[in-house]
Amino acid sequence: MKFIDEATIKVYAGDGGNGVATFRRAKYEPEGGPSGGDGGRGGSVYAIADRNINTLVDYRYTRIFRAERGENGRSSDCYGKSGEDLVLRMPVGTVITDKATGRVIADLTEHGQKVLLAKGGAGGLGNIHFKSSTNRAPRQCTPGEPGEQFELYLELKVLADVGLLGMPNAGKSTFIRSVSAARPKVADYPFTTLHPNLGVVRVDTNRSFVIADIPGLIEGAAQGAGLGHQFLRHLARTRLLLHIVDLAPFDDTVDPVQQAKAIVEELRKYDEGLYNKPRWLVLNKLDLIPQQDREARCARFLEALGWRGPHFAISALSGEGCRALTYAIMDYLDQHK
Question: What's the CATH fold of domain 1-156?
Fold first, then answer.
């Protein structure tokens, strides 16, 4: 299934049914009085969060959603039937915004959460409501109210505890394959990851966290270069960022320090909140560095980068250092709930 994480839709609540003005016509009641019933309420449009859905693809191709209109009132004091409500099922993590005003209508963060998107119109009144001692034969009735209608922007922000950052081919997908059951595509060319991947990392009994892998960033991503800028929003809900750096690039002209600085700068340009999130440095591909040179290579990198925060050296391919890293992440998340 194609991954779609944004869509624009139009929702129309049902109009209320019209009230009617009728009079009772029975054999022995020549002046039976008013008997026009009220119109039915129009159906409303709701959104409900469903953890079994993980993409907005259904809303990319079907964009107009209408709830049922209420029935008109009838004679013999019969009220019109209310219109059926329309319920739209959306992935957990969907943010719904009114496109005209920019107002956030809902943020679906929990499975089963239900919110009203457009309210159905009230039914009109029949002439039975207008009879009085001075008006025995009222001919007044009111039309149903129109239902609300909105153009909505849907934006999916995946729910994950940890987000992975890094240049293309830094080893993010290999890392998520190593520590979880997720199986994103891995290949020896850049941009193999075309959409976010989620993996559940089970550290111990009843201890686990969710990790998100997004397409690799490149310099200029905040201005639209590459793919990663389209998916940076998915890191907004994470509590910890792992900045994965390729410590042994195949091209000798590539400077890992410059690449690491470029990623941090793109974060700052895109969103200060994302830039200020807790971030750990993960030096990957130790398996490509001779054993005796690893410690010195890591020390030189950290010194050149000027990094003073938490850092880990791993090989995502062989799994070296990954277990210690996942336990450290779990401990951090437990302490910062």
Answer: Spo0b-associated Gtp-binding Protein; Chain: A, (2.70.210)
